[in-house]
């Protein structure tokens, strides 16, 4: 039976922390493939469920870059790895993105595969707030990976995940990369480099599409390696 990893994320932008997590899980769980799935409408990042409702300052949410830009950056970042691919299932589905739909769609595309959903320690803590979370564990194995700044141990998680069915989640320590999309966006907005935090092609895509530049930014945006 084929073993397929599923790396879901908003990928705004995709960075080397995402790629190392996928690569490490692929190696440790002998996966045949890892499918990266950029979110369509990441409702928790946008301040809650709600179709076309705009993010508000009160909810602490922010606008997310267009799905096509996030999709293309994910394609660019994964292109050189023959075991990595990118799925459009979440960006082509209307409405809020729920992992339960992602996994149902991938199951019907790969009926004979076993799915392994990869998630960082931060996302894992909130999994019980996800839509139809009980069903998730019938559709896939869950692999929780370590992330700098977040605790990943069974005891700590038990506080958050007391109701989680047994044997549905495995935890994996991976090389620590203290990179977040938030930090990459903030760097790009203020003209600090994102080289080596994201793949080279993604640096160039951010510059070409002028992503993350605030209207008031007076900096030249993304700089070349070694540039001041
Ligand atoms: N540096 C990292 N190490 C391990 N896992 C990570 C890392 N960065 C993100 N992840 C995991 O990758 C998945 C997708 O993350 P996401 O696209 O939200 O990136 P992010 O860096 O957390 O973004 P943002 O800063 O905008 O919240 C989540 O499961 C998250 O926990
Ligand atoms: O199913 C849900 O309700 C749900 C709520 C929040 C996040 N997720 C998924 O978790 C993954 C990481 O999401 P994010 O927002 O941290 O990039 C991605 O695949 C999301 O679709 C899923």
From TrEMBL:
EC assignment: the record states: 2.7.7.18
Q: Where is this region: Disordered?
A: 42-65
Quote the CDD domains the UniProt record gives. NMNAT
Q: What enzyme category does the UniProt record give?
A: transferase
Q: Which keywords fit this entry according to its UniProt record?
A: ATP-binding, NAD, Nucleotide-binding, Nucleotidyltransferase, Pyridine nucleotide biosynthesis, Transferase
Keyword Chloroplast set for record = no
Pathway named in the protein's UniProt entry = Cofactor biosynthesis; NAD(+) biosynthesis; deamido-NAD(+) from nicotinate D-ribonucleotide: step 1/1
Matching Pfam families? CTP_transf_like (PF01467)
Alphabetized GO MF terms: ATP binding; nicotinate-nucleotide adenylyltransferase activity
State whether keyword Nucleotide-binding applies: yes
Domain (Cytidyltransferase-like) ranges = 6-187
Q: Name one GO biological process term.
A: NAD+ biosynthetic process
**Where is the signal peptide, in residue numbers?**
none
The family database entries (InterPro entries) matched by this protein are listed as:
Cyt_trans-like, NadD/NMNAT, Rossmann-like_a/b/a_fold
Which reaction equations make up its catalytic activity? nicotinate beta-D-ribonucleotide + ATP + H(+) = deamido-NAD(+) + diphosphate
Biological role: Catalyzes the reversible adenylation of nicotinate mononucleotide (NaMN) to nicotinic acid adenine dinucleotide (NaAD).
Family classification = Belongs to the NadD family.
This protein is called Probable nicotinate-nucleotide adenylyltransferase
- Gene that this polypeptide is encoded by: nadD
């Amino acid at each position: 039976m084929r073993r397929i990893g599923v790396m879901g994320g908003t990928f705004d932008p995709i960075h080397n922390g995402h790629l190392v997590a996928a690569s490490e899980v692929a190696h440790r769980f002998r996966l045949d493939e890892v499918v990266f799935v950029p979110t369509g409408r990441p409702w928790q990042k946008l301040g809650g469920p709600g179709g076309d409702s705009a993010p508000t300052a009160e909810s602490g949410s922010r606008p997310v870059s267009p799905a096509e830009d996030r999709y293309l950056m994910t394609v660019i970042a994964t292109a050189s790895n023959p075991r990595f691919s990118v799925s459009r299932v979440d960006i082509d589905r209307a409405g809020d993105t729920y992992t339960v739909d992602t996994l149902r769609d991938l199951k019907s595309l790969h009926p004979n595969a076993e799915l392994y959903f990869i998630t960082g320690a931060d996302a894992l803590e909130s999994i019980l707030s996800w839509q139809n979370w009980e069903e998730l564990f019938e559709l896939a194995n869950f692999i929780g990976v370590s992330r700098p700044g977040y605790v990943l141990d069974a005891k700590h998680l038990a506080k958050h995940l007391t109701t989680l069915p047994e044997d549905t989640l495995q935890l994996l320590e991976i090389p620590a990369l203290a990179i977040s999309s938030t930090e990459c966006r903030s760097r790009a907005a203020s003209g600090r480099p994102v080289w080596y935090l994201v793949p080279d092609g993604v640096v160039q895509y951010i510059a070409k599409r002028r992503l993350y530049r605030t209207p008031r930014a007076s900096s030249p945006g993304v700089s070349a390696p070694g540039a001041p």
